[in-house]
């Protein structure tokens, strides 16, 4: 849970200019045109149709790469900007040809209809390989459309969550589950209407069930992305997430799971912690108090302590730091996890201050040993390695100061 950072709202665009295109001349006589298929365009196009396809495909690949390398939400604005530039160029080209257009709402209806023919087989797990590819293509195209807020609202109004996402989550194919979770996250991101609809239809419980029962790293990663989109800036959804074991499940992930999943879990808790801290910055006193009352129903901080999150996080930090010391050789690679766990310790420290203080004798030597190791690498470093090393030293020093130095209230 990425895997935003909260520029999602800026990244999502209105669908007022969104068009799906199919020229009259390319339709075979007496044959019904299918706007779900890309037709061949005349040679007068500035970009040949194969190049247009390639560009669209590259946008999807870039988005997938962004998602793997950072929070899903962080990647979103960059992808949307690339899409917007390309899409505007495409519109100009096609407008010049005076081709027919299909609105996004009409296209959504067509995809709904197309999915219905596969729905039962999705649930029973009896799809052929060709069927699986067709379903994945439908989900992929829907996800592409739902990056626009208005389209996501239409999708929700058409009961897309229950008619399309839910059957996919109830099925057995992990690729389809993964794409459905991605679709759910795209629909819910910064979209209160979709978030409310998802809460009403128990999608938080459904995603938590998939997260707790599935072992595939891509599926679990997409679960955390979807959960983040469903509960961020929505206290009622956060309460449902906590009440149905969300924090407890994240604790299990910190105890034993793949590093990528552990990082996403930590980032989600960080985001929820910062979200609460930012309430203090609301200028209007009445609005600030109202927001605080809304968030108070979650008992987030008490639940974190009750599920031993502080202990689990500090144990993970110790394990990470000790592994860095084992090799006794500094590497510029694979420092992402160290950075995330250190940042998480810093972010959560106001809540975990007492717990960290009680295990100071365990934490302090590990932190000091890693600092000493980084401050005395005993090898010749490149400029890039030196910069990375300095950054890590500053981060670990900040960690040490934050969790061990007394706060102003204690002085």
In short:
It is built from 21 helices and 2 strands. It has helices at residues 8-11, 49-69, 72-96, 104-116, 119-124, 129-146, 149-157, 160-170, 174-188, 192-200, 203-213, 217-231, 235-243, 246-255, 259-277, 285-296, 300-306, 309-327, 336-358, 360-375, 383-404; strands at 19-22, 100-103.
Characterization of the model:
Helix content is 72%, strand content 2%. The chain has 21 helices and 2 strands. The protein has helices at residues 8-11, 49-69, 72-96, 104-116, 119-124, 129-146, 149-157, 160-170, 174-188, 192-200, 203-213, 217-231, 235-243, 246-255, 259-277, 285-296, 300-306, 309-327, 336-358, 360-375, 383-404, and strands spanning 19-22, 100-103. Strands 1-2 form a two-stranded antiparallel sheet. It is globular and about 65 Å long. It starts with 7 loop residues before the first helix and ends in a 7-residue tail after the last helix. Mean pLDDT is 83; it is low at 1-33 and 37-46. Residues 1-35 are annotated as: Disordered. GO terms for molecular function: adenyl-nucleotide exchange factor activity. This is Nucleotide exchange factor SIL1.
List unreliable stretches of 5+ residues.
1-33, 37-46
Number of distinct helices:
21
C-alpha Rg, in Å? 24 Å
Largest sheet: 2 strands, antiparallel
Residues in helices, as a percent range? over 70%
Name the average pLDDT. Answer: 83
- Give the N-to-C terminal Cα separation: 37 Å
Query: What is the approximate shape?
Result: globular
Strand order of the largest sheet: 1-2
The number of distinct β-strands equals 2
How much β-strand is present in the residues?
A: under 5%
Structural class designation: mainly alpha
Order of helices and strands: HEHHEHHHHHHHHHHHHHHHHHH
InterPro entries: ARM-like, ARM-type_fold, Hsp70_NEF-Inhibitors
Family: Belongs to the SIL1 family.
Keywords: Coiled coil, Endoplasmic reticulum, Glycoprotein, Protein transport, Signal, Translocation, Transport
GO molecular function: adenyl-nucleotide exchange factor activity
């Amino acid at each position: 849970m990425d895997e935003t950072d909260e520029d999602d709202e800026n990244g999502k665009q209105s669908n007022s200019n969104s068009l799906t295109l199919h020229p009259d001349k390319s339709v075979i006589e007496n044959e019904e045109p299918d706007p779900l298929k890309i037709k061949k365009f005349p040679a007068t196009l500035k970009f040949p149709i194969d190049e247009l396809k390639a560009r669209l495909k590259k946008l999807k690949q870039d988005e997938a790469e962004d998602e793997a390398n950072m929070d899903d939400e962080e990647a979103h604005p960059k992808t949307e900007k690339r899409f917007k530039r390309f899409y505007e160029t495409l519109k100009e080209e096609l407008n010049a040809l005076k081709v027919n257009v299909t609105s996004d709402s009409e296209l959504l209806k067509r995809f709904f209809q197309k999915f219905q023919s596969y729905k039962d087989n999705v649930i029973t797990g009896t799809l052929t390989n060709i069927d699986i590819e067709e379903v994945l293509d439908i989900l992929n195209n829907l996800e592409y459309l739902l990056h626009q807020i208005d389209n996501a609202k239409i999708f929700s109004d058409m009961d897309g969550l229950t008619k399309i996402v839910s059957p996919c989550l109830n099925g057995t194919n992990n690729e389809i589950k993964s794409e459905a979770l991605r679709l759910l996250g795209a629909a819910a991101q910064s979209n209160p209407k979709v978030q409310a609809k998802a809460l009403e239809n128990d999608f938080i419980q459904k995603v938590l069930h998939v997260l707790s029962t599935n072992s595939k790293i891509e599926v679990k990663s997409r679960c955390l992305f979807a959960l983040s989109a469903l509960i961020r800036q929505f206290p009622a959804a956060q309460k449902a997430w906590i009440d149905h074991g969300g924090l407890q499940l994240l604790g299990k992930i910190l105890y034993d799971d793949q590093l990528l999943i552990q990082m996403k879990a930590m980032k989600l808790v960080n985001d929820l912690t910062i979200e609460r801290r930012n309430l203090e910055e609301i200028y209007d006193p009445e609005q600030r108090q109202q927001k605080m009352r809304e968030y108070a129903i979650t008992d987030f901080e008490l639940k974190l302590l009750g599920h031993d999150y502080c202990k689990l996080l500090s144990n993970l930090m110790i394990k990470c730091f000790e592994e860095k010391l084992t090799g006794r050789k500094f590497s510029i690679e694979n420092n992402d996890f160290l950075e995330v766990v250190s940042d998480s310790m810093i972010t959560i420290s106001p809540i975990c201050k007492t717990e960290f203080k009680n295990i100071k004798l365990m934490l302090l030597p590990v932190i000091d040993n890693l600092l000493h190791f980084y401050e005395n690498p005993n090898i010749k470093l490149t400029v890039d390695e030196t910069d990375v090393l300095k950054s890590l030293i500053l981060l670990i020093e900040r960690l040490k100061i934050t969790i061990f130095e007394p706060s102003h209230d204690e002085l």
